[in-house]
């Protein structure tokens, strides 16, 4: 098929949307290590997890062997509101860079949640409804995940209880109002509606909250209220399974038009987007059918893959969750206050961590002023104002395209554009004003943080 | 073609995007009245307008006879970044309403400007570049039009000078930052960079500005700087011509899938979206080939069609522009301060005004609390958070669908969803908090405003 026949923006037909998710764990020779119950130090089983999570989701979480999971019809019916997402050739960006490389991006931001988070929120809300639950709880920082969950709960008819970090609740009210418009109950955290919240408020009356505290409140609310479970938007194996729809759609579009990516680039925080985008390509690589360079891009201010240690650690700063084996900066690690945008989780998906450890992917870290430069170039050439998170992938793709300019190679570069920056204008303003700065943790910072990683599972 | 084969979200192929704009004036038996030069009282000709506007745009403005204008290749190359836009079946909304009606909407909001405004901004920026100009100037209130223009100027490589009403510049900084990210120079108005700005600042030192003042500054800057022209995002005939791409795409999609709208609904402020959406359908109606009910929906707080008078009036509160014959509330009319969102222009496109006057379309006005109720229902069912402006059309479509529920008629209702509400969360918050109120101008208010309409052209 000739290049001319490929549209700039490829939309699959609705009938081509995948009907199964792909579980990359099935093709991994070394499986991701199991979660550990912090009370016993033993691997978490079904019964350890179902008080907190929905039954079907726990089954998905624990299943390392089933390669394909059917996507329920109810989720497919919902998909048509936000899928298929387009695969777009970045022709104007290529021209601006003067590169012989072909750059494609899979754009997941054209929905009201503004990101790929809907792919897992839709599934988690559906399974909660299927189980006959009344509602779900979660935590949210700036509100991207909370918004996706609120939308999905509105669609399936579920209560949605969101604990939002108090400082975001007060200073970033816009996503809060989107959640409320979709019917979610949004509570600033810490709150006096949970024991843990009351305790923290008593100890620190003026606190503006933290993600760790909001997680603890959301979990407590779920386990102490009949008919509620807790849901989470990244890191977990189940989330990567749901997000595989990104990569599967991309693969179908590539195969349909004869596009053969050489390099696949994604931003990485907890790993939900990157894990989803690369899934089917990684599957081919694991099975030895094809080779791809796969590059995770993370912020230099929160460099879990490039500077973290591969160890069992808690998933939250509050240390109430199971332990996961992953690249971690230590559960106490908090990025510098001048870090804008997301990608601020201290660890990385256990699946991606194992794949990185086994040499199936690369990782790079960039400072945020470079990232916003790339974001601005992308906005002006391709017309889409990208999320700061997604802009890490943009910069990763640009760096590879610049190498092609040097070597003359016509490589095909694919990256994931996870979302839009419409709720990140405070960060853009700092960049436009020239006041955005970088900060990289010192080796001493990281050593202090590593020292607090518990011995459990690491002996 | 059976109903089952129609996708929920219809995307045309890129090759199906229209290559010509349609000029509905060519099929109007009574043409819209010409603009009058306020200095002479005589119809504006080419030479009256070219000091302010680009030459090609003036030709389009004055041409009542040419039915089809070729869309330059350069604009088509830009279109692929934001066109085709989807035509979507609102199945979940239909279900929630329990109506036998089929509801379709043409969604123009899936781009960073968040609205249909890019359709004309792209054309106006292109013609400015083609004329060899350095840049363009404009005014903006909340920033929707300014954002679209900034994006288009970045694409074509033009300076973009935006005078933004000072109160919006300070209190609604987010769209300002989008414009700056696209390289626009955004100046709070009134400013000390123009004579009119300095004069107003001297007379009213604490003023927070007005759209009328920002227009005057933008026009002055354009006519007093070599290589600049002024551009405008609504009301003008040329804008409706560019916006005809909305209706043409819709018509192609309808014809492709055998969809036959009975009723077409659009929100109406200056008329750019409604005029664009209905163009080809109105053409068929004018030529007697088909009949459609066409409904303009406007805010009860700014009811130019439903309560205005059809007369020559100034297009701006500053009274520096030509006079246009249109339905007007008087150039001094300002909607009540509790009016949220746009659709706040005192007049209506001369083309739409003439068509309404001649009985080719209907108009209704709704209060904003009803409009936000409709917006919330739409968001929860169809997943898209709509702009307050667009939500007027949603409510119009819902009202017609409810009538079908009463009568059992399976009518096909088409409406224009012009944009998203991501930058309108302050208004949503008022609605969510129950503090949003309505206000309707009294007959005495309007009579006082009508009394100031100048006699010129109205004798």
Notes on the structure:
- Two copies of one chain form a homodimer.
- Chain A is an alpha/beta fold.
- Chain A has two domains: 3-16 and 72-114 and 240-450, Rossmann fold, CATH 3.40.50.1100; 20-70 and 117-230, 3-Layer(aba) Sandwich (Rossmann fold), CATH 3.40.50.
- Helices cover 41% and strands 16% of the residues of chain A.
- Chain A has a seven-stranded mixed sheet with strand order 1-4-5-15-10-11-14, sandwiched between helices.
- In chain A, helix 2 packs across helix 11 (237-257).
- The first copy, chain A, is globular, with a radius of gyration of 21 Å.
- The termini of chain A are far apart.
- The A-B interface holds A 7-9, 11, 13-14, 80-82, 92, 110-112, 114, 151, 154-155, 173-174, 177-178, 180-183, 375-376, 379-380, 382-385, 420, 422-423, 425, 428-429, 432 and B 7-9, 11, 13-14, 80-82, 92, 110-112, 114, 151, 154-155, 173-174, 177-178, 180-183, 376, 379-380, 382-385, 420, 422-423, 425, 428-429, 432.
